[in-house]
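[Discussion] Sanity-checking designs against the backbone

I'm trying to build intuition for which residues belong where. Below is a structure token string of 330 positions. I'd appreciate it if someone posts a full sequence so I can compare it with mine line by line.
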């Protein structure tokens, strides 16, 4: 449900307009240097502020309340809290009877019999990813020299970064939103991580990645293009004893196991469903389709804020697999 991992267990909690959101990391090794300032850089990358992101401003100041003593992790559960300081819950009052198309409003009401917190999307909000980013920073420390970097590769069908702003501006002018593609690369992960079949590297990363709201697809290495290749084209020739390959169509993974080459994958981020353009939805009280006007503050392109979250969940997934692999080989 809200917990992920085998050795490093990450549990997220909170709602978009609740008192707090946060994360508990259980199974974190003791002795890792950690303080609240260590979290600020990646949390800052997740913040809004760029054109096309939500005007909602939050300090996102982390508060570590357990699991750290004298600047190091203790081995006890690590808990990080974030206050929700800038909420406008009245903007969402109509969503009780007018669920947004493309959002979780309707299914959440069905699943939880109307008891869910609908304000700002509640527990389905992208705000919950604050906890994922915090846990990801800890996971990066566990992984040591392994480097994880994600970036936006495409927005609204445009793959030229110089054209991203224009695409977003056109969408905003039409009171609409756009999606994008984010690519992630992992360098220096040891050979041998991954536990086939059900805990293969692809399986665990994909599981974690799909916890990010708005992710609708993932591909590793050559991805779907591999289906259009011949084996002679898709195979990666091994060129030295370290396992280095001449090409990397496999995306750094063979048989669900890391092969020492860079892990490369891409994710598809859908357009934000909360748009100002008039839409049609079912009024649950009247049982009739009618016009919906979405209020509130929303991102025109959520893909802009996704890269650091993708890095975080990738680090969480790989830190767990790394510790499982260490346990196997020790």
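Best answer:
Here's mine. Compare freely.
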């Amino acid at each position: 449900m809200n917990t992920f991992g085998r050795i490093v267990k990450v549990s997220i909690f909170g709602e978009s307009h609740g008192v707090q959101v946060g994360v508990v990391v259980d199974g974190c090794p003791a002795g890792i240097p950690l303080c609240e300032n260590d979290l600020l850089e990646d949390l800052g990358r997740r913040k809004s502020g760029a054109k096309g992101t939500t005007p909602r401003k939050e300090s996102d100041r982390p508060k570590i309340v357990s699991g750290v003593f004298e600047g190091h992790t203790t081995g006890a559960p690590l808990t990080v809290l974030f206050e929700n300081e800038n909420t406008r819950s009245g903007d969402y009052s109509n969503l009780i009877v007018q669920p947004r198309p493309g959002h979780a409003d309707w299914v959440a009401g069905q699943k939880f019999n109307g008891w869910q917190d609908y304000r700002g999307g509640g527990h389905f909000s992208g705000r919950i990813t604050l906890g994922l980013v915090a846990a990801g920073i800890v996971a990066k420390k566990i992984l040591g020299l392994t480097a994880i970097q994600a970036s936006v590769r495409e927005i609204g069908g445009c793959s030229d970064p110089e054209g991203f702003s224009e695409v977003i501006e056109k969408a905003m002018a039409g009171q609409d939103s756009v999606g994008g593609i984010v690519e992630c690369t992992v360098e220096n992960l040891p050979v041998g991580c991954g536990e086939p079949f059900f805990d293969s590297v692809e399986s665990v990363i994909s599981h974690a990645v799909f916890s990010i709201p708005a992710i609708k697809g993932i591909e590793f290495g050559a991805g779907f293009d591999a289906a259009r290749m011949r084996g002679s084209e898709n195979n990666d020739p091994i060129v030295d004893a370290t396992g280095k390959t001449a090409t990397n169509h496999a995306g750094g993974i063979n048989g669900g196991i890391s092969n020492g080459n860079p892990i490369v994958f891409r994710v598809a981020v859908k357009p934000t469903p909360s748009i100002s353009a008039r839409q049609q939805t079912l009024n649950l009280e009247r049982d009739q389709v009618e016009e919906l006007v979405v209020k509130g503050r929303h991102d025109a392109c959520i893909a802009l804020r996704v890269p650091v979250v993708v890095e975080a969940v990738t680090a969480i997934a790989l830190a767990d697999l790394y510790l499982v692999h260490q346990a196997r080989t020790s």
